[in-house]
Design goal:
60s Ribosomal Protein L30, Chain: A; globular; alpha+beta; 4-stranded mixed beta sheet; 6 strands
Length: 135
């Protein structure tokens, strides 16, 4: 099982929200969550630096994403839904060309944790992606 990437991305994890109309006449859209696009770009940039393979993985893959949030209670609405936090990571992995499409993710271990548990002592996300040679 090849390791595709293992990395820590410091910063405040942001959810991938819905798209809203920016300009109806021009047909442009933007993320509804402030900072979501920037967070996705930070993840993609860090993953590109740490990736293990030169080419995108073509098979199934498993993702671990542990989100360390600056909240005492990670179950509050302000902490974000775990599925939306994960969506931003999966899209960033596609942006970084870890794979060709996030449909290749066949397993996902996602957790929301408080800062007291952070291995780096601050907010961020730990990401590990493994390729499956047989599924």
């Amino acid at each position: 099982m090849p390791v595709l990437v293992v990395t820590w991305v410091p910063g405040h994890p942001k959810t991938k929200g819905s798209m809203v109309v920016r300009n109806a006449k021009a047909g442009t859209m933007k993320e509804a969550v402030a900072g979501s696009t920037h967070w996705r770009q930070l993840i993609a940039a860090r993953v590109r630096e740490c990736r293990q393979l030169a080419q995108p993985w073509s098979g199934p893959a498993g993702v671990t994403a542990y989100f360390y949030l600056p909240r005492d209670d990670v179950t509050t609405a302000r902490a974000g839904d775990i599925d939306k936090l994960s969506r931003n990571v999966l899209d960033a992995l596609e942006d970084a060309q870890i794979w060709t499409d996030d449909v290749q993710c066949v397993s996902l271990d996602a957790r929301k944790l408080g800062l007291a548990q952070s291995p780096e002592g601050g907010a961020g996300v730990f990401i590990a992606v493994m390729g499956y040679e047989q599924w």
